[in-house]
Amino acid sequence: MTTLQQVAERAGCSLASASRVLGCSGPVSEQMARRVRRAAAELGYRPERLAATARSTRRPVVGILIPSITNPVFAASLSSIENRMLLSGHGVLIAQSHYDPEREVSAVHALLNDRPTGLILTLCDPESSRVLDLPLPPTVLLNNPPTPRQPAAVTVPNRAAGATLAGHLLDLGHRRILFVSGNFAASDRARLRHQGYLDVLARRGVAPLPPMQVPFIGSYDQLDLTAILAQEAPTAVIASNDLLAFGVIGALRRQGLGVPQDLSVAGFDGIAIGQMMTPALTTIEMPDASMGAVAASLLLDMAENAAVARHLQLAFSLRAGGTARAV
């Protein structure tokens, strides 16, 4: 039976370093982690915790952190991740952060208690998240851009998506475009989409309106736009996701305003219900299911084959629906 000492010798490192990598018990460089995992894979080494798992007939697991399980975007990704992990013999553990940076730390701690093979994380903001300071197993960011601390990520170019959607409304003649979003500190996706909006308005010499930020966790059916509509007089509203776009449309209708007769509305994500409504929602369609499958495959490649951590970026597309009209 292969020993940890043999793995360390094959990897050219100390026994302590090999133990830290395979036990996720301390900081090591990404290069060192890859060398140790590759040596373990080549030698067929099974840490005692995995051997014990096999003896108890308990499947290995991966941990998944998402902001909210009620959002169809994350549900689509989860379904694809679970299907891919099922093929590899892994179970899936799910935790929610509820868009709260503090809760995401405790949620990841809970996932780590089950000694997962790896993690797939959607963080509020990976640049500032304390999660990435923890001793983590192989980890892939999903929907977050990579960082020096965490180079493995599967994303879409959200900034470019924001620019594309704002550009579409500008092409329709709108010059007063309001951006309604969840709190930027709770979602780098929303912040990047807003930055893309700012980019294209600046290029075209159009003044942006101050963004309206609302809580992600709450009742969008209670959204009140009365004050900001009176103050800013927009002709179009971009919501940072489709669920919020539905809330915007509901708020406008409660004020007796029609979409798109009085105001145009657009969102991001391309969830199915947006295409079932009348008129269909103008949105940026994101490849959520594909992203989940790609993230799962990347994680398994890193964990089982010591593959290099890398950033994989998928494409988005503009879906021009009936909620945005020319002015």
Concise description?
The protein is α/β, with parallel strands linked by helices. The chain has 12 helices and 12 strands. Helix 1 packs across helix 3 and helix 2 packs across helix 3.
Explain this structure:
InterPro entries: HTH_LacI, LacI/GalR-like_sensor, Lambda_DNA-bd_dom_sf, Peripla_BP_I. Pfam families: LacI, Peripla_BP_3. Residues 2-56 form the HTH lacI-type domain. This is Transcriptional regulator. 43% of the residues are buried. Helix 1 crosses helix 3 and helix 3 crosses helix 12 (288-305). The model is unreliable at 50-57 (pLDDT under 50). A six-stranded parallel β-sheet has the order 2-1-3-4-5-11, sandwiched between helices. A six-stranded mixed β-sheet has the order 7-6-8-9-10-12, with helices on both faces. Helix content is 43%, strand content 16%. By secondary structure, the chain is α/β, with parallel strands linked by helices. Strand 9, helix 11 and strand 10 form a beta-alpha-beta unit. Among the domains are: 1-58, 434 Repressor (Amino-terminal Domain) (Orthogonal Bundle); 158-286, Rossmann fold (3-Layer(aba) Sandwich), CATH 3.40.50. It has twelve helices and twelve strands.
